[in-house]
Amino acid sequence: AFIDGNIVPDFTQTPPIHANPLSGNDPATVAYFKQRKVFGGSNANPQTIWLSKVGAYQNMDVRNPVIDSDAITATLVSQQVNVIKAMLPIVNGLVVLTGNSAWQVTGSPLTPANIDAQPQAYNGASDVPPLLINYDILYISAKGNNIRDLEYNFFANIYTGKDISVLANHFFFGHEIREWTWAEEPFKLVWIVRDDGILISLTYLKEQDVYGMARHDTLGYFESVCSIVEGTEDAVYVVVKRYIGGRFVKYIERFASRKFPNGVESAWCVDSGLQYPLTYPAADITVTIDESTADITADSAVFAI
To answer: Which of 18, 15, 110, 98 is nearest to 61 (CA)?
Structure first.
């Protein structure tokens, strides 16, 4: 039996309308913010960001009328049109870096009716992805030849920063930064690959106001760099192009650890080398060192004159 209780229909709860605003836009950058997946950097709509439904990262559906969990489409309104280069979620909001400025996207709660975007700093970013270090953002300027940081200023209530490469700008004058990576442990280093194959290191310890840069050369050209957590260290891997056997070849190389548990015997300080255990021939090697010479002997005939 059906009993009509005179329940009034709720017209605010309508079926979702399927939408795919990313079709034909091909966004180039992506982030996650407040349980939504954020897309941006489209050539067709360079200053538009699209946010998915809450907790449904591939769902861009909306309703009519909209509800708080619906997908969001928003556009940065500025004097110039500049494509979005990167987006990073920070505690105070979503920082959006464009080719001319930095923006902060906020909303508490973040809903289609309660989203706000405000310009922060008018320093554009390059195509190289920024680095998020603790509560700071390091990014490369739009011209690709200097490094800036970006942090939240509680007094001005905006994100602001400075050029941290200004005292060592000779490292980048006439060049561009191709890639970089952050190796936190054990030395707090940013490794930077320049467009001519030179490797630059940036010591970055913001809490102590410690900054320093150095150049690193090799018999070849650095082309790529990344860091991977291995145990208690951030191991640094590089792609190096070297001239070997009359032709250029590319190697994937790993920086040797600077930890020497056995003292100088554990040191492996070479430009490029391959180390492997010797299993043949079997012999015990004895090294005797005096003030000027070193004698190496073996308990079997393994040396040939």
So the answer is: 18
End-to-end CA distance of the chain: 106
Beta strands in 20-160 (DSSP E): 29-33, 36-40, 48-51, 72-75, 84-90, 93-98, 102-106, 116-119, 131-133, 136-140, 147-153, 158-160
pLDDT band at residue 129 under the 50/70/90 scheme:
very high
* DSSP summary character for residue 168: G
Report the chain's C-alpha Rg in angstroms: 28
36-50 pLDDT tens trace: 999 999 999 999 999
Question: d(Cα 239, Cα 226) in Å, to the nearest integer?
Answer: 9
Alpha-carbon dihedral of residues 259, 263, 269, 273, nearest 10 degrees? -90
What span, in angstroms and rounded, lies between the C-alpha atoms of 180 and 139?
A: 10
Residue 286, token pair as written in the block: 């004895």
**b/e code 59-75 from CB counts within 10 Å (16+ = b):** bbbbbeebbebbbbbbe
- Of 214, 28, 196, the closest CA to residue 128 belongs to 28
Confidence of residue 60 (pLDDT cuts 50, 70, 90): very high
Distances in whole angstroms, Cα of residue 150 to Cα of each of 31, 92, 101, 197, 218: 18, 13, 11, 27, 32
Beta bridge partners of 238: 225, 253
Distance CA 149, CA 267 (A): 35
* Tokens 């393994």 -> residue: 302
